Amino acid sequence: MKASAPGKIILFGEHAVVYGRPALAVPVAQVHADAEVSDSSRAGIWINAPDIDLHAELNSLPSDHPLAAIIREFFPHPVSSPLCPSPNPSTSLRASFGRGDRGEGVEIKISSTIPVASGLGSGAAVSVALIRALSSFLHNPLSDEQISSMAFEIEKLHHGTPSGIDNTVITYARPVFFVKGQPIEIFKVGKPFTIMIADTGISAPTREAVGDVRKLWEADKEKWEKAFDEIGGIAKEARRRIENGEWELIGKLMNQNHELLKGMTVSSPELDRLVDAARSAGALGAKMSGGGRGGNMIALVNAVKAGIAADACISSGAKRVIITQIH
Ligand code: MEV
Fold first, then answer.
1. pLDDT band at 78, cuts 50/70/90?
2. What is the pLDDT of residues 5-49, one digit of tens each?
3. Which residues of 203-227 are buried (b: 16+ CB within 10 A; e: fewer)?
4. C-alpha closest to that of 149 among 128, 133, 135
5. Catalytic site residue from 34, 166, 212, 229
């Protein structure tokens, strides 16, 4: 059983979204995570994730390992395994689904083209693809709502206090206007537009940037609540503009959002250099995207001039670029 999940970018509102302000995010289909679950003649539940150099039997992984945590949701009682022979395999979920006669064990393959810790949602995409593949394999496919909420629990293992935006946009694979704890709102794109995504190549765990923003906020709540309000206002205006097909006008909002994120210390010299390069090459606006400190930036570009902005970013140190249509 195979399943796939896209990457994502945050157009507006990262970090402030952790504090209840709205944010806009869209899926990026050019990168994706894939999971495949199949019967195996080898006993045990084997995980094969070459991208992260993981080849292990489930019982050898610690309980807070995000992949193991997901798999244990589906196989709460181990199937017989060389590390932990099951005294009574009929107690396994697998057996209760009536699949015990098809093979001794389970083989789970996970791969991803989404760079890790780069703001493109690699952790959430792997979770969503794996949850989908496992639930279908066990003939009990979960709804998007169930998948997203299970992936949200795993996001907590990855980065402590997630807002839930990554698992939401990646599960639904549609543009979302997201407010923490509120029902998902899909937004319409009035006229398609083009975004260039450029990668600094620096991996930067979201947990650290989110933790540092929390320290700033704890030290001066009044100041940062105001900054979060400004960012929330930008996200709302951007949604209106995008829905009205006035995408040319969101470039200015991107620039404003980037300045506020810089003030929050989550940008970096490498991100700022790419933002400047894209603007100088004719982008209508540019900003960092996601947790920051490294990872990716995004720029609003005219479709025909996207290549010029991409070349400028490569010359300024970008390790790779993606040009994507938002529709
Ligand atoms: C990460 O993609 C976005 C952040 O706002 C964290 C979150 O919302 O969980 C930085």
1. low
2. 999 999 999 999 999 999 999 999 999 999 999 999 999 999 999
3. ebbbebbbebbbebbeeeeeebeeb
4. 128
5. 166
**Domain shared by 192 and 174, yes or no:** no
In a domain, 44, yes or no: yes
Which pLDDT value is given to residue 95?
41
Residue 99 has pLDDT above 80, yes or no: no
Q: How many domains does the chain have?
A: 2
Q: In whole angstroms, what is the distance from residue 69 CA to residue 66 CA?
A: 5
CA of 176 to the centre of ligand 1 (A): 14
Are 125 and 7 in the same domain?
yes
Catalytic residue check, 53: no
- Phi-psi sector, 47: left (phi>0), alpha (psi -120 to 50), beta: beta
pLDDT tens-place string over residues 296-316: 999 999 999 999 999 999 999
In a domain, 183, yes or no: no
Q: 0.85 exceeded by the pTM?
A: yes
What are the residues facing 37 on neighbouring strands? Answer: 108
* Together in a domain, 36 and 149: yes
Which atom of ligand 1 lies at the shortest distance from residue 210's CA? 10
CA of 15, closest atom in ligand 1: 5
* Percentage of the chain exceeding pLDDT 70: 92
Question: Do 170 and 251 sit in the same domain of this protein?
Answer: no
Contact 131, 125 (CB under 8 A): no
> What is the percentage of the chain residues whose pLDDT exceeds 90?
85
| Cβ < 6 A, ligand 1 pocket | 10, 14-15, 17-18, 119, 162-163, 165-166, 206, 210, 290-291
